[in-house]
Amino acid sequence: MLRNISLRSRIFISMIFWVVIAFVLIASVTIYQYSEQNRDYHAERMERKEEQIKQSIDLALQKTTYPVTTENLGHIFRDEIYEIALVQNINFNIYDLQGQLIKSSRPKFEVDSISTCLDAEVLNNLASSPNKRYVEQKSAAGYNYQASYTYISDKRFKNVGILNLPYFEDNSFNDKELREILLRLTGAYLLLMLLAIGLAYFISKYITRSLQTISERLNQTDLTKRNEKIIVENPSEEIGKLITSYNEMIDELEISAAKLAKGEREQAWREMAKQVAHEIKNPLTPMRLSVQNFERKFNPNDPDIAKRVSEFSKTLIQQIDTMSSIASAFSNFANMPAQQNETLNVVKIVKMAVDIFDENYIHFFSEEEEIIAKLDRTQLIRVVTNLVKNATQAIVNVDSPKVLVTVSKDGDFVKMTVEDNGMGISMESKEKVFEPKFTTKTSGMGLGLGMVKNIVETYKGTINFTSEPGKGTVFTVRFPIANGA
Predict the structure, then answer these.
(1) What is the top EC class of this enzyme, as a single word (predicted)?
(2) Taking the model in full, what pTM does it have?
């Protein structure tokens, strides 16, 4: 999915993502650090309290007049246990070596909630501990607390009892401090997030600006016209290389386009010269034969000499007229129609052009009385007459010939159709219809439809056709309607 996102969006999202990741990591490390700090603090504090109570117990054992035995611990600490708990500000319990409760510093009504007998697991862990100390993790009423167990020894380091120190962890202060730090950290990161969003936007825009310029120029690259080079101030090294490559490509493209255009022009002129030479040779051959025949049979004393000269002249004039029409056709095709852009009523002009033809099978129809377009009157008439003339030549051998010319509106275009029921156009000929030298007729230069296409496209129009062999052809021409028409 990320592949379909633009480069600018990916840069923007990546920067925001890493800011969020950094916040999560720092918050996690902060919480972990506070947890470790609390644990170490409470462990050290419990050891310190335990050591202070043990010192107080050792002092009480030194002052007592009772023999220091397990049985006398209850007598020795009958009142002393409360003084020690008051001084150290913490309650503790004393058990015998079998885990039976001997004395507790808690008030009488709280003693019932204390375990009067230690578990065998506690005794075993305490006995097997290298430092003769065991700490048990417990929980009560939703609170976590620790309970440490250590031996009480006499002067000869003989164990006479077990000291139990319940230690409740009070994390309210640290939790409050942690919440305040996380709150401040969240505020700082929200501000950082806003700054990152703004910075990510400008950085992504700056990075992709040059790429956007290059992309736009690539989309605008046109082989048929001169393309502008890309100029970007202070580009990065990578973007600079890309721009240089594009500009070099444009230079090479212009050189190649110039060579191609020159080659196409030369090829077009060669083809045109061949066509002109071929068309001129056609009437020259009968002219030559006529002259040779006239020279061989010429007899000044022939009584029909006037008739023979007249026939000979007509033949030459006919061939000369043919050569003249060839020259006119090529001249008309070579001359690009000038864009006069006259404001014309296309319906009226097309009807006028159709009326030139006398054939009764040629019909004109239009539902509109007026469709305005900016065209050249002469060129529009030339388009109509060429299409109608082609249609009439296509229905020579048809029993019931018919040519229908229509004009109508088609959105923002004026549409003209020329339909005939003639022989149609074969599949292999359809792609060559608009080529300048293509023709299916036994006479003519095949320049008419090429010239029509040239005129139509000059005025930003379109021409196309549909044809079915044996049933007829329909040519459709569209010109843009004048604004406000």
Answers:
(1) transferase
(2) 0.38
